[in-house]
Each structure stands twice: as C-alpha cells, then as structure tokens.
Amino acid sequence: RCTDLDWISRVRVNHQAVLKRAQYIQSLKVSKKQWQAAWLLKAVTCIDLTTLAGDDTPSNVHRLCLKAIQPVRLDLLKNMDMHDKGITTAAVCVYPSRVADAVRSLKAAHSDLPVASVATGFPAGQTPLETRLQEVRLAVRDGAAEIDVVINRTLALSGQWEAMYRELHQFREACGDAHMKTILATGELGTFTNIYKASIVSMMAGSDFIKTSTGKEPVNATYPVAIVMARAIRDYYLSTGYKVLDPIILTCKIIIPVCVCVCVCVGVS
Amino acid sequence: MAGCAAKTVYEIFQSMEYGPTAAPSAATAQAWLEHHSRSLGLFIDGAFVSPAGRRSCPLTDPKGSVVCSIVCSEDEDVSRCSSSAVSGYKSWSSLTCSQRSRVLLRLVSVLGLHGQCVSELCDLCGAACSPTALVRLLQFYSSWAQLRDALLCDWTPVGVVVVVTSDDSSLYSLMLKVLPALAMGNSVIAVPGRSAAPPALLLAQLLAAGGLPAGALNVLTGSDVTLGAKVAQDPNASFVTYSGNQQDGAALCKATAGMGLPVSVSLCIGPVCPFIIFESADMDSAVDEVVQAAFKKRKEVHWVLCVQESVSESVTARLKLRIAGLKCVSLRSDADRVLVDAAVEEAQQQGATLVQSCPPPPGSQYPPTLLCGAAPSSPFVVSPPPGPLLPVVTFRSNAEAVVMGNHSPHGHAASIWTEDLTLALETAHSLSVGSVWVNSSSVVDPCLPVSGHKDSGTCTDGGQEGLYQFLRPSGSTPLPRSAPGLMDYTRFGTEPSQAFIPESSEPGSSPQSYLQFVGGKACKSVSGCTMAVRAPGGSAVLALCPDGGRKDVRDAVEAAVKVQPGWKKKSPSARAQSLYSLAKGLEAKRLELAASLVSQTGVSLDEAGQEVDLSITRLSVWAAYCDKMQGGSLPMPQSGTALAIPEALGVVGIILPDKRPLLSMVTLLGAAIATGNAVIMVPSQKHPLPALAFIQVLQSSDLPAGVVNIITGSPDQLTVALANHSVIKAIWYWGSAQGRQYLQHTCASPVKSLRLFHQDQEGNDGGPDWTRSQPSLLQDLWRNAVQWKSVWIPSA
Predict the structure, then answer these.
(1) Do B234 and B331 lie in a common domain?
(2) What pTM does this model have?
(3) N or C: which end of chain A has fewer CB within 10 A?
(4) In whole angstroms, what is the distance from residue B151 CA to residue B779 CA?
C-alpha cells in the first residue's frame, strides 16, 4: 500500500468549514417511513455491540452475544418483512480476556458472528509496544476475528507519523487474518488536521476500518469528526484506488444518535 | 408516488437510496392568500387597496400552477401612492429616533408570530428568504434608527425613496434597501419584482400592524421594470435605488435619465464570480462548498471555478465523485434548456470535457455539469446560461489567480480558498470585487457592506456605509426635478466649439496662451486648436486655452490608468505628504493664483486672496483626512474577522463648476486623490484660468505624473468623451440639465457612478457652499470617491 509521508505533511483542514458543513448536513431532512426504517436497520448491522467494563463476566457477555444475534425485536422485523434477512449487529466487542467466553457463547448459539477484541492497551495505549503486540496475538489466538487497536496518541500529537505507521504496521502483522480496526481517539488528537493525518496513516498501515473513539474519552464521535474521517477515506480511495463503501456520511448521520462508538465502514475490497 | 410507496424496506436496505423529500407545508401562506381571494392588491397608505379595472398578472410557482395574481399599477395608483408616501414621510420623519427604532423592533416580535407565514409565502413565490435573516436585518437597522442622530449627526433623510427590484430578486435584497431607508427616516415606495411581490405586501402589512405610520411604506406591483420608471417620474420621489439583474437595471437607468433624480443600482443578480482554490486550501471543504454553491436550484451568481494547476487533478477527482451522487436540477423554463444545451454544445466544440452524473433527460431537468478545460474568454464563461453548469479553469501562480479572478467585467464577489492567511489577504486586496469570502462562500449579513465594483453597480448596501445613500448632508440642496427632454443622444456634444479668430493686429497685445496638463506634462491639445477665454462680463479675450477633445481624454486616461494603482497602493501617510506639499506649493504661488482669480472672475484682490487661503487650508484638510478615511473590522454574528475596506474607484472624471473656480477644484481634487484615485478634470468653460494657473503648482509638487490631469475645452464635448470611456468609473458633473440627461442615459451600461449637480447659464449651482467646511460635506465627497470591499474570514 501507499506510504507517502509527503502526503501527510500536505494535509490541510479548515476547522470552521468543516463545522459549517456538519451544520448543513445536520439540517438536511431525514427521509421518513420505510426509508427511515431501512437506514436504521442498516445502522444496526454496522454496530459493534460492545461491553468494555471492569465487571464483565461470562454471564453478561453471553447475554450480549444473544442480543447481537437478535438486536431488533422479531415482531418488529416481521412487520417489515426483514426477519429472514439476517439482521444482526456487525460484531460483538469485548476485552481480550472475555474473547474466549464470547466465542464459546456464539458457537453455542450457532452463529458465525465475529468477535471483536480491543487490544494494544485499550483505551489509553500507554503500555510498552511489546505487551501491546502480545495482547493482539493472544486475542487472535483466543478466536477474535477483528482486533480494535488504539493508536499511540503520544506519537500522533508529537507529529511522529512515521513511527506511528511502523507501530500500526506491526499490529497489522500481529493480526494475521483478523481484521484490524483502528481507533483514533479523536477527542484526544486536538485538531481536525491531526484526525485527518491519523486516518490516512492508519489506512496506509493496512487498517480495514477506522473508528473515531474508544468511548472512554470525554468527547467521542461528533458530526465534524465523522466528516473529516470520511473525507480522509475518500482521499485515500482517490489516491490508491482502494474501494470504499460510499454512503459514509449519512450512515454516520443515523448511527451517531444510536451508538457512542461510530464505526465508519471502510470495506476494503 | 405509488411506485415509491411500494418499495419494501428490504429493497431500500440493499440499495441505500434516499426517500422522497416531503413537500414543505404551505398551509399558513395559502390561508393568507385565500383571505385575499388569491388576488393581491397594492399596499398604499397603510392598507390594502384593490383599484378596479386593472390588468392583473398571474404568479406561478415552479411547477406552473398559479399561486395568486398581482395588480399591474397604473398612473393613477402611482400618484395616489406618492401622495401617501409624502404624508407618510411627514409623520415618520417627525418621530424621534427611538420611536422609529421601536417600530422596527416591534416587527421582530411580529415576525416571531408570523415568521412561518412569511417563509412559506417566500417559498411559494420562489423568493426564498429565511425569517432569521429578516430578523437579523430588522435588529441591525432598528439599532441604526436609534443611533442616527447620535452617530450620523448633520445628515438628513432624502425624503421619498423608491426601491425597485427585478423579477428574479429575493425578498432579502429588497429589504436590504427598504429597511435602512426606513431606519434613516425616509418613506419608501417599494416596487418589488414579481416573485418578491406577495411577501413584500405581507411584510408591509405586518410593519403597519407593528405601528409604522400609514404611508411610510407603500408597495406597488406591476408586470415589469417600467413601473419603476413611472414611479420615479413622480415629482415627489427624491431617490431611486435598484437591485437585481443587469438588463432591467440598465433599462431603469435609461428610462429615468433626465428626471433630475439620483439613481443608484446594485447589479447583484447574474454576475460571474470566481471561486479560487489555491494549492494550500482545504480541498475537501472547498469542493463541498463549490458543489453546494454552484448547483443550487436558484443561484444568484454564476461561479467559475479557478483551480491551481498543481491540485487541479485531485480537485476534479473529488468533484467527479461528488457530482456522481447529485440529482438533476430543475431549470426555470424550457427556454433556459435551449440556452443550456447551446452553451454545452459550444463548450464541447471548444474542447471542454463534460462531467455529468447522468446524460441530460429531456425537459426542464438538467444534471449538474462540470465543464473542464474552459478558458476565461470562452463564451460560456463570459455570459453563462442559467442552469447547473460550472466551468473549471486552471491557473499556475498566485498572481495568475488574481488576473483570472479579475477577468470578468463584473465585480460582485469572490470566494478564495487557502489556509495561508497572507495569501488570502493579498488576494482579497488585489481582487476588484465588492465581497471576498475566504474559505466560505455566499455569506450575507447586514453588517457587511455589499458594493458592486466594476460593472456590478454604483451603490453600497448594508453596513454603516450603506446608510449614506439614504441621507444627504444637512443644508445641501437636492437636484432640481426636471422633465426629461427629447434629445438626440448621438448629437450631444458634437457642436464644433467657436473658433478663435485673430482680431487685433497689434503685435504686443496678443493674449497669453495657456497649456493643459496631461500625464504630468503641460501640453497643447492634440488637435492643436485653442479657444478664447473671455474676461468677466466683457468680450475682451483674456487668454487662450487649448481646445481639448476625445483624444486628449484618451491620453489622459492612459496616463492615469498607468499611475493610479501605484498611487492607490501608497501608504495613506505618503499620500498625505504629497497633498501637504501641494498645499505648500499653492502657498508659494499664492499671488499668481490670486491674480488669475481676479482677472478671471472679477473679484477683488482681497476676496481672491481669501479663496486661495481657503484652498490651501482645504488641501491640508484633505491631507489630514488621508489616514482617517478608513474602514474597520465589523461585528459579525458568527466568529471570524470581517473587514470593511474603502478602495479608490480608479479614474474619476470631473466637470468642474463655475463658482469659486480654485476652491471648488482643490476640494474635489483633494477628495478624489486623497482616497487614491486619479482624476481628469475639465475646468469650467467660463473660468478656466485658475485651474490652468494651478498647473504650475502641480508641476512643482511630488504627485506622480498622471494622477491629476486637466483638460480644457468645450465641456459638452469632453463630457461625451468621459462618458464613453470604459475605464472611467465615476463622473462628477456640474452643468446643464441636458448634460445630466446625457450622462444618465449613456452611463447606464456599463454603469458609472454619477454625481450630478445643477448649474445654470449664469453659473448658479445647487452644489455645496465651497467656503464652508462642514464635516458632512467633506464626508459626502470622500464617500463618493471610494467603493467598499468587505472581506470575511471565518474562524472556528
């Protein structure tokens, strides 16, 4: 993939223009009736149903897995004739120690829903690289099909994009066949320009998805941030030809009220 | 619709398509229209009037169904309306400032109640205007109404103001003129274009309900812009201001020529505006903004996208992606479709590549279209058709961007995109447009002065600067009203001037021969002819002066254009020093100048000395003004920095008055050059000697050659030459009614800003009393010598 660091230095984002654009998008009218239902269902299928708490036990992870398989009440789905269309969330997301529990629960329920695991010192990422890599490997070994890595904010904020690229690249290798989803923790990156650069670097390093935030920072997913990331995705697509699913912004538009942690879907074909 | 409703959730889930947008409700507006039986009358003397037997003209919505019908006013209605406006002026102007302010503020709360009705009606009629924008206008101008006497002392309202807008104008541009006129204490006759007529009538009703005295705001409706001229012809009107497209504006100017009525125009509909993206821009934001601005359904300006070559590929790639997802835009009519098709075909023949989301369907729908590889001279760039077309041109350097931005004859607005503040400000200063939006576009607010540069108009709306068109200095006399005479515009000023025949044969007594002043050199006229200057009251030949003509004017303009940009760029204090040195030079030649005044006008030596002294003081006053005539930062409601910058007009032509020949000349000269203009002055035919004697002062000064030019000759002939020179942006004129009519008629297109003063055969004029140095008089002069530019730099 492309590793042009010149590109990073050329990135410019105008703060007020992004805010204005966000305001405009929010002012657009939402389609009603079956369109609203269809879009909301689409949003549901993009969600990583998540529990990331200190008091997680196999029992609540089990409940979560069943909820992920049947996220919307069956009678509602029947009404819309969607009960047999496989409406589940995109994945179940847990801490590495709970991966084995989740895999077990899903297998028991005969579901092939992927289990996602946060890793690399989630949420702060302030642990040695060695342990972060080990975390990824262990989660993959336990059966996680997706790994949510957090970027090293120290490197991003001090402008060491090449170092960040190398770290993410190592994560990518550690993931093996699992998808790598990179969490940018946008609330801690300071500027939109940093968010844009972090998005591009993450994609260069081979991320399959980029996500706004861990859900643990004071500010999480917002419209302007979603716009900046969606633009970075478009930019990356234009420069490298990696295909991006297009309805990004409007997906976010509905997802944001629904879940804290936005998954900006970047399907790489 | 039935097909849409049948779409299942699963189909939409797979295609992720957008649903149909619900048509906005218009129940309140419809109910109001029903209340008026769908035929709206006129609003005169605080009430609706429906005169019998008038032609009515149907108003249709974009889908073609009739919304309501409006009355076509006739002469009787116009005279009724004008007498209502006169009585309205009496009662409205006799209120105190705070009373007027309160009336305007009251409408804010009235709009709170009826804002829904206003916005629905605007949407129905296709003159979109949001209630929040109206509320902001009202709040801004009610505070100006409150502070008129405190901050604009020594100014009086002009009287009955006629506000005319063209059919395609929005309600906002109408109110941007109506409200400041009211705030300054004038009464208004609004002549809205078709689409803005119903909401204007509704607003007039709401204002009257809010306590506006009957007659202060009247609304007349008609089928076209000739109604504006009809209203202007009424003897009670004192000022006409127009906003809208260029054609109707020129027609109105021509129709009102010779009525003795000042007319100002803002040609804000349909100009070509550059949208400049530098390589240092946030390209994604710029692309989103240009897509939003250029492919709107009702766009008031035509954007031309100028992209720096180094990023043109990535900008076009982004545009292509964005355009692919856009729906077709409906054109106003099938006639527009023909124009669009012709323009697109022409563009393709010239090698432009087309980017469209889909092939154009037949009918009045057209897809957003990029025309890549256009040149600034391409016909579809110069006079673009209405429709969702966006020509894209590329530039290499920052300087080239400015050249391309200034290429069109219009000077309405520009949008520039760069993260480099220095580049943004430099570009903003070099573009000759009235509004510059940095990293944004189409931002309007009443505190931003909107002023058309070049061919985009002659007046400033909005801001404090926009108030002065509705005021005149206290004590000044307005232009006397006159009936336009039948005149042959092609023959004006073609009479040959009286040839000078040698009379006496005495060798020693041949009169002194003077030279004119062109491009910093004293010279004869190009034709070599001279004419005689006669002594006061007598027939004795006092001196000879050159008989200048068109060629002299052309030479002078050439010299002026060369030097003016440099003169304008000089720091205000450097200009002040030049003016001080001019004053000093005048002091040194005090006796010569006084003598020339004595021999020319026949005043006593004492009086002449006084005039010279006053002139010296006046030049010093202008020198002092140089760095005091400033704009400033404006209080925008959003965060960011807004600047109002006064800029020189360029080259100003002045036909000087007979009275006080030296003092009036230095006063006008000072006003023009202190603000950075170059001038071409035509001394009065009767009293040219002081001006010609002043040439030696100019020669000894350090003014750059060409900033001041003096050409003598037949004023009519020179007026024609000035009026027809496209470079001259403004003409200040003292002279006959015929000359004024000629100027108003000729300077309608391309438009020049005119300051006309009456002066009869005896030299009595209606101009200012030159000996007084009332601050408002001087302010009036320098405000007429500048055009405003607003720069908006938003920040988060």
Answers:
(1) no
(2) 0.92
(3) C
(4) 13
Residue B119 sits in the same domain as residue B153: yes
pLDDT on residue A251: 37
**B316 touches A: beta carbon within 8 Å:** no
A76 to chain B, any CB pair closer than 8 A? The answer is: no
Say if A246 is an interface residue toward chain B (CB within 8 Å): yes
> Are residues B402 and B541 both part of a single domain?
no
Provide the shortest C-alpha distance from residue A125 to chain B (in Å): 30
Report strand pairing: B435-438 vs B786-794: parallel
- Report the C-alpha gap between B665 and B694 in whole angstroms: 10
* A207, pLDDT greater than 80: yes
**Are B298 and B236 members of one domain?**
no
CB–CB contact A16 B439 (8 Å):
yes
What are the beta bridge partners of residue B546?
Answer: B530
Inter-chain touch B280–A12, beta carbons under 8 Å: yes
Number of domains composing chain B: 3
pLDDT surpasses 70 at A105? yes
B443 and B534 inside one domain: no
Using an 8 Å CB-CB cutoff, list chain A residues near B318: 234, 238
Interface contact A38, partner B, CB < 8 A: yes
Which two three-digit tokens encode residue B359? 């092939």
Any domain includes B759: yes
The 10 Å CB-count burial string (b at 16+, else e) for B180-202 is: bbbbbbbbbbbbbbbbbbbbbbb
- Is B529 found in the same domain as B420? no
A76-90, A148-162, B247-261: which has the minimum mean pLDDT?
A76-90
Q: CATH number of the domain that B558 lies in?
A: 3.40.605.10
Q: In whole angstroms, how far apart are CA B608 and each of B136, B588, B621? A: 54, 15, 20
pLDDT mean over A72-84: 88
Residue of B786, B753, B784, B745 whose CA lies nearest to B768: B784
- State whether B12 and A38 contact (CB < 8 Å): yes
Subunit contact B9:A82, Cβ cutoff 8 A: yes
The C-alpha atoms of residue B439 and residue B415 are separated, in whole angstroms, by 7
Which residue intervals of A11-94 are DSSP H helices?
A: 15-27, 33-46, 58-69, 74-79
Q: Taking CA atoms, what residue in B is nearest to A12? A: B282
CATH of the domain at B368: 3.40.309.10
pLDDT in tens, B360-377: 888 888 999 999 988 888
3-state secondary structure B725-777: CCCEEEEEEEECHHHHHHHHHHCECCECEEEEEEECCCCCECCCCCCCCCHHH
Residue whose entry in the numeric block shows the structure tokens 């299928």: A45
pLDDT along chain B (796 residues), means of 10: 63 78 80 89 92 86 81 92 95 95 92 90 84 93 95 93 92 95 96 92 92 94 88 92 93 91 92 95 94 88 95 92 86 86 90 89 90 88 90 95 93 95 95 96 92 91 93 87 86 77 60 92 90 81 90 95 95 95 95 93 93 96 92 91 94 94 95 96 93 94 94 93 94 92 91 90 77 88 94 94
Task: Return d(Cα A151, Cα A124) in angstroms, integer.
Answer: 9
Judge if B539 and B423 occupy the same domain: no
CB-based contacts of B16, cutoff 8 Å, min separation 6 = A38, A39, A42, A247
Confidence check: pLDDT of A37 > 90: no
Same domain, B304 and B359: yes
Reply yes or no on whether the pLDDT at A245 is more than 60.
no
3-state class (DSSP) for residue B500 = coil
Give the number of A-B residue pairs with CB atoms closer than 8 Å. 93
Q: What is the pLDDT of residue A221?
A: 74
What percent of chain A is predicted at pLDDT more than 70? 88
**Domain extent for B682:** 518-630+639-786
Q: Is B49 exposed, middle or buried (0-12, 13-18, 19+ CB in 10 A)?
A: middle
Asked if B190 and B219 count as a contact pair (C-beta separation under 8 A), the reply is yes
